[in-house]
Design a protein that fits this description.
Organism (chains A, B): Prauserella flavalba
GO molecular function (chains A, B): DNA binding; DNA-binding transcription factor activity
Radius of gyration of chain A: 19 Å
Keywords (chains A, B): DNA-binding, Transcription, Transcription regulation
Protein name (chains A, B): Transcriptional regulator
Shape of chain A: elongated
Number of helices of chain A: 5
Oligomer: homodimer
Chain lengths: ~100, ~100
DNA sequence: CACTAACGTAAGTTACGCCTTACGGAATCT
DNA sequence: AGATTCCGTAAGGCGTAACTTACGTTAGTG
């Protein structure tokens, strides 16, 4: 089962996209603003934002001729929940394994 | 500042590595065991495990001629904390922004 | 109505990541 | 000691993701 959360993990695999998302977490801003603070061109940022948008990690809010991007809190929450669940399961299985070993050495 | 957590995000960017990690979360197992359940060769799995190990997401435990891999709970916890902090900051900044807008429309 | 600013997309190049096959080392068994 | 199993690494091929430049579109501005 491939959910859109999977796309989020793939999207966050790129350092530039992580940087962009960290930037947007501070405050929403336009494409040009982001590109000015990164060592890549503006179209490159635009492409990254498209990937992040498809992964439900950012939202767009047109404002005049500019497009203000911001973090998609809902998508981010879903990602966090998935990691939490995974963490819980890993810890649970680890404890179970330890118990089995102490019973049968 | 590039921490080893950054490597974890990069490592989890690959679908095969996410699959391997999910597999190891169920229970620790050897390289061959993992490869048998994946559509890739054993050396490929070995390379993925190396990346996961460098990212502090898995641990190795030599056992005879076999090498048992398991989830690195400590590294995974660190990753979870980072995501939690990021989530908290994003939510905080969002709230702050809403307040500023309600004050000055 | 030009003119500009901001942006998305197309086309093309390039670098890198993933995978394979081949080889060699280490531990176990007979 | 020889054979076998399990594994890591090297070398190379190959697809694709990330970037650039170029162009077209849309919304403000004088």
């Amino acid at each position: 089962m491939a959910t859109y959360v999977d796309d989020a993990w793939t999207a966050l695999g790129d350092p530039s996209r992580r940087q962009i998302l960290r930037r947007l977490a501070e405050r929403p801003c336009s494409v040009t603003e982001i590109a000015e603070e990164l060592p890549i061109s503006r179209p490159a940022v635009s492409q990254h934002l498209r990937v992040l948008k498809e992964a439900r990690l950012v939202l767009v809010r047109p404002q005049g001729t500019r497009r203000i991007y911001e973090v998609d809190l809902q998508g981010l929450a879903t990602l966090r929940e998935e990691l939490d669940q995974f963490w819980g399961k890993a810890l649970e299985n680890f404890k179970r394994l330890v118990e089995e070993e102490t019973e049968q050495p």
